Amino acid sequence: MSNPQKKRNFQIEAFKHKVVVDPKYADKTWKILEHAIHEIYNHNASGLSFEELYRNAYNMVLHKFGEKLYSGLVSTMTAHLKEISKSIEDSQGGLFLEELNRKWNDHNKALQMIRDILMYMDRTFIPSTRKTPVHELGLILWRDNVIYSPKIRSRLLDTLLELVLQERTGEVINRGLMRNIIKMLMDLGSSVYQEEFEQPFLDVSAEFYKGESQKFIESCDCGEYLKKAEKRLNEEIDRVTHYLDAKSEVKITNVVEKEMIANHMLALVHMENSGLVNMLLDDKYEDLGRMYSLFRRVPNGLSTVRDVMTSHIRDIGKQLVSDPEKLKDPVEFVQRLLDEKDKYDGIIGSAFGNDKTFQNALNSSFEYFINLNPRSPEFISLFVDDKLRKGLKGVSEEDVEVILDKVMMLFRYLQEKDVFEKYYKQHLAKRLLSGKTVSDDAERSLIVKLKTECGYQFTSKLEGMFTDMKTSQDTMQGFYSSHPELSEGPTLTVQVLTTGSWPTQSAVTCNLPAEMSSLCEKFRSYYLGTHSGRRLSWQTNMGTADVKATFGKGQKHELNVSTYQMCVLMLFNTCDRLSYKEIEQASEIPAVDLKRCLQSLALVKGKNVLRKEPMSKDVGEDDVFFVNDKFASKFYKVKIGTVVAQKESEPEKQETRQRVEEDRKPQIEAAIVRIMKSRRVLDHNNIIAEVTKQLQSRFLANPTEIKKRIESLIERDFLERDSVDRKLYRYLA
Amino acid sequence: MGIQGDRVRFNVGGRRFETSATTLANAGRDSFFGALFDRNWSLQTDVSSDIFIDRNPDCFAVLLDLLRTGEFCIPANVSEKSLYREALFYGVLDHVRDAKWGQLDGNRLQYSRSVSGQAPGDGTAIRASPNGGCCVVHGSMVHVYNWMLEEHPPINLDFQRVNDAGWIDSENIVITACERLGTGDGGMGLFNASTGELRYKFSVSHEDQEKSYTAGALTFSSDYRVFSSCKGRRNEYGIGVWDQITGKQIDFFYETPGWPLGDADRLQWLSGYNCLLVATLFPRKDNCYISLLDCREKDPVWYWSDVGMPTNFDEKRVRDVIAMEGKNSVCVVNEYEDLGFMDLRRVAGSVRWSSRSRMTKGKMPDEPCYPKLALHDSQLFSSMSDSISVFSGPDCVPTSRLRRSYGGSICDFSIGGDRLFALHSEENVFDIWETLPPSII
Hints:
heterodimer; A: mainly alpha; three-stranded antiparallel sheet; 31 helices; 66% helix; B: Potassium Channel Kv1.1, Chain A; Methylamine Dehydrogenase, Chain H; 2 domains; four-stranded antiparallel sheet; 5 helices; 44% strand
């Protein structure tokens, strides 16, 4: 405010002021307030006038006696608290806590009233002099005079800890009183709570649980122990919610976790007859779930569980894939893998909370042992083959999807995906050509899945096979409509297969019966007439034929046979008796196939349309064959199977292997060139690493093979070695 | 005593009042009335006698009315000062403040009053406190006013020239000052607002050696950090960071050559970006440099400068900067009060000057003051010569203009505690603008 200067000269209030003030004013006023504080502590406040006391305290502050008021308050309150402290010290045994609680409540109430009287001081004098506000002061004085009193301090702690111990041993204690006392410690500041109760409480608890866990581990099995540990943990959490500071929960649970779980982790997991492996074997979801939720609380807990589970799965898996007994039936083999996977998916799902790290561990274990057996790709393809041939009949679309998804999951584990592709192609070709596939939708669905997994390149040939089938149908329709005269006589169905899309076959064509070969020639000229620049070669090893046959006593049957078998049977139209050599010469069927074909015609009981002399179990070079006039069957149509080894025989396996290796070469080379084109210069180790990485979605490239390919590329001037550093390769554009 | 049901009878300084306990409850527990009616004090239930309070009845009437209606009206026979004194006695001073003015709205501001001081020379800066007080910088002194505009003891830092001041809260002020060579005087200190007492000085250490320095622009973050631009004697140019509570130095961003930080004119903490806006402007430097520092990475995440702009650029020279987090933009103003905007999400963009029709076109005042910017909620304020413009809405269109002819140009203004303070350059006077409390009817 802008006061004119001259007015100040007449200000004489200050002088008057001093005269009015009674020199003993401050003492007198303080006496009144001091008396009031006494009365408040003595529960005798009903005679006091709040207005008068408030005004007195106000006046003391206004007249600059704030300091006197404040120090008076400190000493008066201290004196009362000392008295209170004495009466608490004198309380008998069990009444100690109750007395403390009662006095604490009294003090709080008195403090509130004192603060009311001194509100003006609290508002003005205290902030400007940076003194402790009245309420806080009351707490500090209580702490220093009561809680820190030597006769109370240790007695309080002992009493509290004793009560906790009683509760742990199953007795019922006065939780309300306990809560009030703990609340008091917390009100006095978090450090008071921590020092006067929390830390000693944690120490004592650690000691308690150390002893108890030792006792349990000696007397309980794993599941039982975990149940007890869980119960203790919940009890402690319950205790915190009932009467401790919420912040203590983490600390006390840490103690229990450390003493009951972390310190006994290995002993629990490996406990004989009841440890983790037994739980896994017996599908003990509840125990496993408990183990998971307890172990996840401690450092390295889950990794311990995971490691044991992983090595267990690997052991089991190794047995599965290496036990020769279990390798006999590929379908069974794959089904066992799937069952094992289902089992662990179930455990991880319901007991391990779908933990990602456990899923990863499961996946890596499967990847590990599936690839231990080099025949896994073949077997998985055979499993699919089995399912698609007959296994899916009458199964709903969703279930088909489920099965296919499971197969894809196994497929993902395969390192040699190209080997799988090889087999899959072979099996698919057989299914398509023999018309054995159950569901076109299922076939296509699986190809889509493979495509999303491995890309277009992987499935383009498989898709080409489907296209060929479709085009062939159209071609056959065209052929017959342009040759109406052919409706009489034998019917020919040709499937035109694009070279390269289909598994390569040795293209040895046998001699077809005259009727058939003329028909084939007609088709050839029709096809080449409509498609110029193509070459047709007959894959007689893959076809089938329906042959009408009349036997000695006039029995008529329609025989469903392979093309080779048809050729053999047709030979018997002209003579009754043929030797092996004669058949071989006339038909020009490769020996292996011919033997197999004769076996199925002459040696399968009940379906032997031919007889053989001598009657032995194998077909020999000197055997002679006759038509079996006594052939009989309940059915008109008879299917003559070919004796085919479902699994590949050892030489076949070698061959496939070789083909795969052969196919890998260009892929490795392409990868090397791609990498070098972009990097220009790279050292040997890095090339190996990058090539392996690029190709791992298809197969695991062999470093030695990569090295060979690099050598070959150097020979062909795609790459050169650096003249100084021989480990460096350069790309030659 | 004077309680019957809800009714309460008082005898205040000889005059009788009758009111209800409900009305008095509005004062809250932490007041004279709150304590009076607490059951601890079990008032005697003697209906015949009134509750006696030995205070001024005229003031009591006003304050009782405040509790009844929430309105604060000062009658002619009572001084404002005595009302504040009585309100402090009853513990309802906060109620008085809340009733005096409402939430600040730039478009509903009313001139409340002016305060003039005795300091020699021009004021250089004014800063509003969070509860409606303010402090004014005059050379080496800082004058502090509480919300009742009573002056507290003034503050100085070794009587060095003060560059900036800021309120950490309504009780604590930080001021930054020039260093006095070789003495360790100056720098930056934290003061008690009501007593003017120095709590501690903020020190700057380089390689474990304490250095004296000149502190410039100042800002605070919500996580209790203090930032200030610092100039030391040698390489100690940059932005210092301290803890508000302990006063200890936490960090120091050294400036890099070609990008000044140490004598920045404006710092602004952007809590949403967790970044510090630093602006060094003309005429302190020949060019203008604005950057956004990421305190953890110690890297500028956004920057702009007019280095290399065409020569006729003078007209568009940036005079003040403010970041508007809500709009993800930086607002700048030139000396003709043209506003320009830059997108904070695009580094090294250009300024989009708004070509609004200038309201102040025409003659410049004799003693011009460069424009300054401030932000309140979503409203932008800009001072230019003797008036302050208010811009609202997403496109910052001009919506109000505050002007008082007395005192000359406005050299600085500040918004805080729902009040706007404007400091004039020619006379030693500052104005207070307030928004009235919401009307009752």
